Amino acid sequence: MNAAVSYIPKWEDEINWLNGKSYSKETEGEKKLIVYLWSISCGYCKEMIPDILQLYEENKSFFQLLSIHVPMNDSDLNSDRVQKVVGELGMEGPVLLDNEHRWISLFESEVLPSLYVYDAQGKLVSSKVGVGDTTAYLSSLIHV
């Protein structure tokens, strides 16, 4: 695993958030954190969002959810367009716009979608990159 993301990265200096919310370590308490890297131009990424949101809603006493939008083309840089899709998908939590590809580079992820799960102590405990049996993976997160 990438040493750069072995522990929860520092999001505090980021200013490019949607939904009027940003991630704060103070709000995490004893919860695990799911970080989801995705793009509005990635069909499979958008297909996964309802399953991720359902997992989160059913288990939000155990999890926090942070989404990072990674633009795949110039039109994905339009924050109004991203906000529209975020609203259509029912994403109400913090969404970080990674317009400079800083975060996807930090995670050393070359494929979307990507999921990273951190335990309550901030240590990376699980990750999944790309497509595959996402339903089974999401179900397994409850026991990570």
- Give me the strand/helix succession: EEHEHEHEEH
List the strand order in the largest sheet: 1-4-3-2-5-6
Number of strands: 6
Rg over CA atoms, rounded to whole Å, is 14 Å
CATH topology: the name is: Glutaredoxin
What is the beta-strand fraction? Answer: 15-25%
Q: What's the architecture, going by CATH?
A: 3-Layer(aba) Sandwich
The proportion of residues forming helix, as a percent range, comes to: 25-40%
Low-confidence stretches: none
Number of helical segments with 4 or more residues: 4
Determine the N-to-C terminus distance. Answer: 16 Å
Main sheet properties: 6 strands, mixed
Kindly provide the name of the CATH class. Answer: Alpha Beta
Query: What's the CATH superfamily, by name?
Result: Glutaredoxin
Model description:
The chain contains four helices and six strands. It has 144 residues and is α/β, with parallel strands linked by helices. α1 packs parallel to α4. 26% of the residues lie in helices and 21% in strands. Strands 1-4-3-2-5-6 form a six-stranded mixed sheet. The radius of gyration is 14 Å and the shape is globular. It has one domain (3-143): Glutaredoxin (3-Layer(aba) Sandwich), CATH 3.40.30. The two termini are 16 Å apart.
Task: Give a short summary of the structure.
Helix content is 26%, strand content 21%. It is an alpha/beta fold.
Q: What would the keywords be for this entry?
A:
4 helices; 21% strand; 6 strands; alpha/beta; Glutaredoxin; 6-stranded mixed β-sheet; single chain; 144 residues
